[in-house]
Amino acid sequence: MSTPITSSQLILHQAMAASPSHLRSLYRSLLRELPHRPLSTPSPIQQRIRNSISSNSAPMQVEEAEQYIQYVKAQRMYATLLERYNPGMSMDEEEKVRLTARRVGMDLPEEWRAGKKN
């Protein structure tokens, strides 16, 4: 059986969640998930995140930031796995046919290639 969380434990958890080091960690995690840009020219989203983190963040905002980081990491992992296990997704139909023929030990005839290119 788990013991119920007391209000003092909840307040302590919220205070720890909003500590400067935790907020800094959240900020860095969010920046890692964004497309890389030089810090000398931050994007509007980077500026918005920095302003939001530097202001006194409510515990709910901190929790939302943590959830957003987990979501973005999961989406990045999903895209990576999708590319890894479905390598033909980004190929056009001609390339798929050529690779399928090569897979079974055949090359496409020259007439077929010439007919497609003309």
Automatic annotation (TrEMBL):
InterPro entries (alphabetical): Fmc1
This protein's GO cellular component annotations are: mitochondrial matrix
GO BP annotations, alphabetical order: mitochondrial proton-transporting ATP synthase complex assembly
Short name of any one Pfam family annotated for the protein = Complex1_LYR_2
Q: What is this protein called?
A: ATP synthase assembly factor FMC1, mitochondrial
Please report the organism this UniProt entry assigns to the protein: Letharia columbiana
